[in-house]
Amino acid sequence: MALVRILVDGYSLLHNWPELAEGAPRHSEAARDALVEMLTHYQDAGSTPVTIFFDGNGPKRSKPKNESSGAVEVLFSNSGQTADDLIERAAHRFQSYGEVLVVTDDFAERDIVSGFGGSVASCANFIGMIHDALKTLTENLNRHNRNERNRFSRFQ
Fold first, then answer.
1. Nearest to 106, CA basis, from 5, 11, 3
2. Domain containing 19 — which CATH number?
3. Which of 22, 78, 85, 130 is most exposed, with minimal Cβ within 10 Å?
C-alpha cells in the first residue's frame, strides 16, 4: 500500500531536534516556522503530503491560526482537544486511502496508531529520513547541474 500522508506531532519533533531553530524556545513561533520550512523541503524532495499537528491551547498563549502551503498543512488543536486527538482521527480516516505514517515519540500514541494499522516512526528515525532525503536531493541537483554545464560547454 502506498504512503498517502505523513502526520507529524510537531512539538514532539521539535523537542527531539534541538539544532533546528537553535536558541529559540521549543514552543515558539520561530521554532514552529523552522520546522514547517524543513518539512516543506522534505515534502518537496519526497512528494508525500505532510500534516503537522500542534497543541493549540495552553496557559498564556494565544492559539495560532491553522495554515497550509501546498502539500504541507499545519493544524492547531482547539480547546478541549490535543494534537494527539487530531492525529488519531486523521490516521484512522486516511486508512481507506492507503498507508499513513505517524511521527511521534509518544509511545501511547504510537501504540494506538499501529493498533489500527497505521505506520509509526520515532522522531529520531524521521529526522534521519529527512537528512537522507535532502542529501539525495542535493546530490541529484548537483549531478543535474554538472550535466547541464557540460552540455552547455560543448556548444561554445
1. 11
2. 3.40.50
3. 22
